[in-house]
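FORM 12-B: Structure-to-Sequence Request
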């Protein structure tokens, strides 16, 4: 097989179909609900890759894990929020 058509190593990890958690973990189910609610799309830039769930009001400041306090962000936007480069409004 030539190099151009060689499968990417580790690519299967990025192309696994998303599926809801099956083990009964409440937080994972909430996170899954948020991803579905937000259409598997970063709510800041529209990216659909490397998604994470962000607490709008941090738990350290009294935020909770309710779906109303969670937002889907891509890895880059999530990092920018935590580094103070992007700001989100807090609820409550």
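FORM 12-B RESPONSE
SEQUENCE OUT:
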């Amino acid at each position: 097989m030539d190099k151009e058509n060689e499968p990417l190593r580790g690519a299967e990890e990025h192309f696994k179909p998303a599926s809801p958690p099956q083990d009964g973990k409440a937080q994972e189910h909430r996170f899954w609900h948020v991803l579905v609610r937000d259409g598997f799309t970063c709510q800041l830039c529209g990216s659909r890759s490397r998604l994470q769930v962000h607490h709008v009001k941090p738990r350290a400041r009294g935020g909770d894990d309710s779906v109303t306090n969670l937002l889907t962000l891509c890895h880059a936007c999530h990092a920018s929020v935590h580094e103070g480069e992007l700001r989100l409004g807090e609820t409550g």
